[in-house]
Amino acid sequence: MNLRQMECFLAVADELHFRRAADRLRLAPPTVSEAVAGLERSLGSRLVERTSRRVRLTPFGAEFAAAIRPPIEALYQAHRTARLRSAHHRDLVVAHTPELGRLILPGLVDAWPAATADDGAGDGAGDGAGDQIRARWRPVPMHTPEQLAAVADGEVDVGLCWSVPAQPGITSTVLGEFPLVAVLQASDPLASRGEVALADLRTRRILITPRADNPYLDSRLQADITRAGIPHTHVEEVGRYDELAVHVATRGHVGVHPGPIALTNTLPTVVFRPIADASDRVRICAISHAEARTGSIAALVATLRSIVGALDIGNKIT
Question: Which of 135, 177, 211, 234 could connect to 218 by a Cys-Cys bridge, CB 3.0–4.6 Å?
């Protein structure tokens, strides 16, 4: 019996689409296809019917999915519960996007003292606030979609990400709200303004970081770009913020990005101006499993909120 094969099969049964099932599991589509095929070989019967147009379960596949779903879900729930109960005597896993890691984690190092080998924090004895605050933590770089999946699976205790939609079973705390900004050459005529409208950028090449890093935030930005009358052919993706800033500084393009990046920018020839007609402010969020927002995890989120609340970007973007 192969648990991964059955996990892949259940994802296909839910999605009725191999690529979507692969995206959900963070696997390559050929991996999911081979897992289902291997399960079919071990059972000696077809589970799904695949054509170029559709995927559907066979009667045998539907029966098998109904039979294995409850015990597999119970197994994963048991794993999540055990992991949550162990949070007070193991390292907390803090996932973060690359930019938020640079922005926030240095403050967390100072504000959240690590446990020492002989202070008792790791022996599971005691659940007081002192023990919780001394709990060790370790960072893991991870973009927002992966964070949401890992938090739901219990692999990550706290995720640090930009704006996220509501997700069943996940608690999201807004640590701070910030403007969307235009990233400009200091010599750009738009830099003389106190704020910039997207409508002012209709004739400019606009740079953004990868859409897949946060599809929810990107969908809102793309809607704003459409409302402003900017052709989507004028929008170009670049791999990271530091690459975006270099293109702005050397090619005269305009970047669009969440405002807190101004605090980690190292190029003196690049400036930031709030975007006046953005439909919403950008949020820095801490996400965790809904069942886990107690004890050391709750204390860690409260500390992160204090760190983000102390960020002062006002003099960087005006």
Answer: 211
